[in-house]
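Input chain follows. Return structure tokens only.
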Amino acid sequence: MTEQEYLEHHQFNSVTGTHAGVGSVSTLVLAQNTSRKWASVINNSDTPMVLNLGSAATAGEGIRLGTAGGERKFEISWLNLYTGAINGIHEETGTKQVTVAEGW
């Protein structure tokens, strides 16, 4: 693959950013997007969360997003490209916020 082909394959021209409310039941954080080339989910809350790829999130199982002072970000890039739905959950009460960005 030439450098130009590599750049064309991995670059993205559109980016969206939003917030998602995550509850104590599985919540859709990012919908499936077969054109996705990059995405980031950042926990903005004081409560640890768990992400699950493709199916409903279950508390205590999956990709853990910590709070301030811990690993609070999950990122998808061409190195670990996943284009399916991402769901989240936490074990506290109320709705907690994550920041979501996606490029395609």
